[in-house]
């Protein structure tokens, strides 16, 4: 049986990955203006234009999971390198590589690698193509509070799921007014769970290896390879 720590770790990785995909979607997508806050749309469009001007992005982040009722308060750190729809994500000792076609999940603790293809027909899968339309439907958004964070002006945009079955009450996206970079993403769950992804370092146009997003099986001679497709 898996321990509570293993289950929590797995859920954290899954939850953080989802939040990462959401941030990527927000960075790449120009929002529909219909039934939405024009000021919020204008700010998101500025973020989109800024990010699209970069060849690549390297982010160091902090991920926090809090639930007062369940007495859960956990912080973790990670980093992600993105170029186009490719990425390398390191979080809680696990590495995820997406080369544009397949995802490679490397778990050194278990000496196991899972390889899976992207299924564009899976409605629940967040694929690179869906990243461009992720928030186009299913959310209402508007300008929220403006905060001063260590001398930085952070403008929040509130996103509210339109699906009543969605377990998230609302999402707050914090944007640095000066740089037009994402500062953080806060999810408030209907059951009291709060997850926060905070960007500690945002670097752009970094020198990357030509094999940055390539999985090399020979580097893991003793690992069990689990091919799902």
Provide the fold topology.
Elements: H1 4-28, H2 38-52, E1 57-67, E2 72-83, E3 86-91, E4 94-98, E5 102-107, E6 112-117, H3 128-131, E7 139-149, E8 152-161, E9 168-176, E10 182-189, E11 194-204, E12 224-227
Parallel strand pairs: 6-12
Antiparallel strand pairs: 1-2, 1-11, 2-3, 3-4, 4-5, 5-6, 7-8, 8-9, 9-10, 10-11
In short:
The protein has three helices and twelve strands. It has helices spanning 4-28, 38-52, 128-131; strands at residues 57-67, 72-83, 86-91, 94-98, 102-107, 112-117, 139-149, 152-161, 168-176, 182-189, 194-204, 224-227. Strand 3 and strand 4 form a beta hairpin.
Lateral strand order in the biggest sheet: 7-8-9-10-11-1-2-3-4-5-6-12
Between the first and last Cα atoms, what is the distance in angstroms?
Answer: 26 Å
Morphology call: globular
Stretches where pLDDT is under 50 for at least 5 consecutive residues are 126-134
Which strand-content bin applies to the residues?
35-45%
- SS-based class: alpha+beta
Helix-strand sequence: HHEEEEEEHEEEEEE
Helix content: 10-25%
How many alpha or pi helices? 3
């Amino acid at each position: 049986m898996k321990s509570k720590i293993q289950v929590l770790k797995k859920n954290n990785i899954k939850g953080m990955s989802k939040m990462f995909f959401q941030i990527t979607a927000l960075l790449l997508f120009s929002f529909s203006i219909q039934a939405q806050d024009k000021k919020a749309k204008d700010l998101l469009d500025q973020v989109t234009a800024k990010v699209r001007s970069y060849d690549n992005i390297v982010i160091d982040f902090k991920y926090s999971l809090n639930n007062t009722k369940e007495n859960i308060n956990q912080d973790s750190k990670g980093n992600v390198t993105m170029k186009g729809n490719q990425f390398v994500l390191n979080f809680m000792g696990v590495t995820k590589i997406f080369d544009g076609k397949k995802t490679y999940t490397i778990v050194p603790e278990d000496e196991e690698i899972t390889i899976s293809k992207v299924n564009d027909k899976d409605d629940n899968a967040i694929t690179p193509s869906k990243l461009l339309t992720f928030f186009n439907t299913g959310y209402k958004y508007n300008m929220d509070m403006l905060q001063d964070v260590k001398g930085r002006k952070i403008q929040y945009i509130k996103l509210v799921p339109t699906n009543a079955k969605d377990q998230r009450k609302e999402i707050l996206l914090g944007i640095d007014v000066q740089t037009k970079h994402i500062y953080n993403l806060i999810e408030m769950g209907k059951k009291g769970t709060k997850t926060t992804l905070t960007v500690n370092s945002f670097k752009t146009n970094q020198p990357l290896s030509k094999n940055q997003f390539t999985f090399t099986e020979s580097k893991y001679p003793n690992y069990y390879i689990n091919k799902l497709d």
